[in-house]
Write a structure and sequence with these properties.
single chain; alpha+beta; 15 helices; about 15% strand
Length: about 475
């Protein structure tokens, strides 16, 4: 909540938010990059135990982020003109020109992955040094925002992003935006409010804070949640089970050979032949070089050879498989994405398995789409386009990433055209894999074909005698 309006008070609040959420987001970042908590080990664990603990980390977190993120790709923008089809191609609109100028075709993925991993990410829309209006992403680890109503507001009252952390004698630097101005902030530490300094105060050109939040999940308290934090406990459980499997595999997965009634050879004095005794008066045994290529034999008939069975590993493997299935259910990621088991599955079975993931992706598209629409309105306002800056009916067009064959899609689109009367142009976007450039090429080709057809018709009408003679010859 915003409790003060002065720039220095806003800067202190925003730096305090970074400090408050720092440990939680740092843990999420560590798990995302494979730096997990060690499995349980006894206090006297040796280096071999610790090596197995490091090797037991099976990092599933990037897959939980990447699976939905790879289905999020904005492929166009449809202005809210009030008509069914925009009057001009999408790529010719100011919004899409801003998108291309900001290189968001490639950079949008980083925004989605940040929002899915940490719960939220940010973008800043501003003029660059050359005067062009661009949008770029901001990390949740370095950016915070204040809202009057964090659950419902899409416009922050103020936002801050750290551009350099404090190092040695150098203070940290940050940028602060409120509804009208941008400020330069310096600080010694996130918790040192007295060291915060605010300078500058130039107009940023917009009528509201130019920072936009992209949130994966937001509750009515304004708290954001990503896909990693709820899965940390389950990830630790998988790591512990893998660690136990490696221990059993290293120390108990082979048969142990035993022998009873056989005295080991001992060290003897080369001159007297008597056994060499240690400080306790016991003979010192010789080390036996025994491995799988050697065998032992005994002359004493009372010696007995035996073996101890190996530790079965199937139980550990089944436990890992069960934990991964739990991870799949809780994260709404189809099991075959995690286990790689897709043999003998029909297309209907695969589609049914991905229903939960599709619904999850649809939820993300709704949330992120609203954020992109605000970005387009901000860019339009900064460029002086009053009409587009007030366009609340525009929407982004998401690429269809569902796996369907071209034949099935063509058959379905043909039925929609014939049975429901949907215009052909309105169905072009639903062709699998079609891009905005291809749509524009198709539009141009159709116009060319229409022009040729009109020209041919005009020539036929202008030469009725030739047409009649041709018909007579044919008869």
């Amino acid at each position: 909540m915003v409790t003060a309006a002065s720039p220095i008070a806003l800067a202190r609040q925003l730096l305090g938010i970074l400090h408050r959420d720092g440990d939680r987001l740092a843990q999420v970042d560590a798990y995302l990059h494979g730096h997990h908590a060690d499995p349980y080990m006894p206090p006297q664990a040796d280096d071999e135990y610790r090596l197995l603990a490091r090797r037991s980390v099976s990092n599933w977190m990037p897959l939980l982020v990447g699976t939905p993120a790879q289905a999020l790709y904005v492929d166009g923008h449809r202005p809210g003109t009030g008509t069914e089809v925009p009057a001009e191609p999408d790529s010719a609109t100011p919004e899409w020109e801003h998108w291309q100028r900001s290189r968001l075709d490639a950079r949008q993925a980083a925004v989605y992955r940040g929002a899915l991993a940490y719960g939220h990410a940010f973008t800043i829309t501003e003029k660059n040094r050359s005067g062009a209006i661009v949008t770029k992403g901001l990390s949740a680890l370095k950016t915070s925002a204040l809202y009057e109503d964090p659950a419902n507001d899409d416009t922050p009252a103020a936002a801050l992003t750290v551009t350099a952390w404090p190092q040695d004698d150098q203070p940290g630097r940050a940028r602060l935006w409120d509804a009208r101005r941008e400020y330069a902030v310096t600080f010694r530490a996130l918790t040192d409010e007295k060291s915060v300094r605010v300078q500058g105060g130039r107009l940023h050109g917009a009528s509201e804070c130019p920072v936009t939040r992209f949130a994966a999940y937001v509750d009515l308290e304004g708290r954001t949640l990503g896909v990693i934090e709820p899965m940390i406990a389950l990830q630790d459980r998988i790591n512990q089970t893998v660690f136990d499997l490696l221990l059993a595999q290293s120390y108990g997965s082979t048969k142990v050979r035993t022998v009873t009634g056989m005295a080991p050879p001992v060290q003897r004095d080369p001159e007297t032949g008597e056994p060499v005794l240690d400080e306790l008066g016991n003979p010192i045994p010789l080390r036996i070089n025994h491995n799988s290529r050697r065998f032992l034999f005994a002359e004493d008939p009372d010696v007995r050879f035996g073996s101890l069975d190996e530790t079965p590993l199937q139980g550990f493997i089944e436990s890992i498989d069960m934990s991964i299935r739990h991870l799949s259910a809780l994260a709404q990621v189809p099991p075959h994405h995690l286990l790689g088991q897709i043999a003998n599955l029909s297309a209907e079975a695969l589609q049914a398995a991905e229903v939960a993931l599709s619904r999850k992706i649809a939820e993300f598209r709704t949330s992120f789409g609203e954020s992109w629409e605000r970005v387009f309105r901000l860019a339009a306002e900064l460029s002086g386009n009053v009409t587009s800056s007030e366009d609340y009916r525009g929407e982004v067009v998401w690429r269809d990433m569902e796996s369907r064959s071209l034949g099935q899609a063509a058959d379905a689109l043909g039925k929609l055209r014939q049975q429901l009367g949907i215009p052909e142009r309105g169905l072009w976007r639903r062709v699998p894999g079609v891009t905005q450039t291809e749509l524009e090429d198709w539009e141009q080709m159709r116009e060319d074909d229409d022009s040729v057809a009109q020209l041919a018709g005009a020539l036929n009408r202008a030469t009725p005698e030739a047409e009649a003679s041709v018909e007579k010859v044919a008869a």
